[in-house]
Amino acid sequence: MPSKPVANTSSSAGSPPSKKTVSRNIFLITVIALIVAAVGIAAAMDTMGSQNTTLNANYTTLSSLYSNLQTNYSNLNSQYASLESQYNSLSSEYAKLNSTYNTINEAYSQLLGGYQVQGSLSIDAANITSDNTMTVYLRNSGAQTETVNNAYVDNIPVNMSNVLGGEAYVATIPVGGTATLYLQGTAGSGWGNGSAFQVRMVAASGDSAVYAASAPAETAQSPLSITSVYAYQDPSNVGQATGLTLTVELSGAESVDFTQGVISVSLTTPSGSNSNVYTTSNFITETDFANSTFQSSLQTFQNYAPSCTVIELQGNGNQLLEQNEQFAVFLNLNSTYLDCPLPPNAQFTVELIPADGAGVTYSGTIPAMLNPVMQLAEP
């Protein structure tokens, strides 16, 4: 009878590891994991160190850029201050130059003589004789005869003649000779109004003479002269001057028409201004003024006078004031039309404005103490 197999009590490959083996394996795995983790941490720290270095480098670069910007700002600010200083200096120089220009320009505009551009031809003088006529004195100081055939005033061609108002003329001037020529522009050229002008004379040879000057400004003269002024007080209006009279004569040789509508009489008082109070034809001849009503008395006349009346004190019976004649202009301040009696110390102005020539003006003050007849200060 076969014998019964006996169980094998020794270990084999299929037997579970012992506790010691397991513990050792776990330890090894842990060590390996720690090593791996340490390696990862070291790598991470290396990366962070590299990034920190980069950040430091970037910070240094930015700091340098900021410093450069600050330097550039300071430079620009300094340049701006310098430019502002230069601008102020240039502005000051400009003001000086402008002032000098104005001074020179004013001196030129007031120039009464002239300047000449000298060549073989020269202009000794250019005298304005009217608004559009001029006399020019030309000289040939060259070595050949000059034929002058063109004339210009302010670069505008004008007629040149050897007689005033004559036909166009060509002037032949020998060596050392002179010529008197007359220039004529269009009506209203304005040569004689005091403004600057330039004359240029041109010869056939191409030579020219230039003369520049300013025409003396003409002061308009009145053909009338006020010889005396009176004020009157109406006894029925005590405390106010109710009438004014201005006696007038000619100041020159030209007669003046005193016909209403031809001459104007303006009046200014504290009550206002009136450009013409001579609005109706009120002219009294010397004969009528001597009648029994007026008796050649201006004081008496105020009781009958309209607002403005022209009275012939000495004349030939017409309204034309001529040599050796005298008219009076009477203003009734108490008339319905004027209605402006003047109290003591009141100021007034009367202007007589003829059709031709300048007007003549009288400004006066009513005396503080009124009398029936008051001769005011003569102009």
List its traits:
379 residues, alpha+beta, Immunoglobulin-like, 3 domains, six-stranded antiparallel sheet, six-stranded mixed sheet, 22 strands, elongated
Structural class computed from helices and strand pairing? alpha+beta
Hey, roughly how much beta strand do the residues contain?
25-35%
What coarse outline follows from CA principal-axis ratios? elongated
What are the segments in which pLDDT stays under 50 over at least 5 consecutive residues?
109-118
Calculate Rg over CA atoms: 56 Å
- Count of helical stretches: 3
* Number of extended strands: 22
Sheet having the most strands? 6 strands, antiparallel
Oligomer: single chain
| Fraction of helical residues | 25-40%
Q: What is the averaged pLDDT score? A: 83
Give the topology string: H per helix, E per strand.
HEEEEEEEEEEEEEEEEHHEEEEEE
Span of the ends, CA to CA: 190 Å
Count structural domains: 3
SSE topology sketch:
Blueprint lengths: L18 H91 L4 E4 L3 E8 L4 E8 L5 E8 L2 E2 L1 E3 L9 E3 L4 E7 L11 E8 L4 E7 L9 E9 L10 E8 L5 E2 L6 E6 L2 E3 L8 E2 L1 H4 L8 H4 L6 E7 L5 E2 L4 E7 L14 E7 L6 E6 L7 E3 L4
Parallel strand pairs: 16-17
Antiparallel strand pairs: 1-10, 2-3, 3-8, 4-5, 4-7, 4-9, 6-8, 9-10, 11-12, 11-22, 12-19, 13-18, 14-15, 14-20, 17-19, 20-21
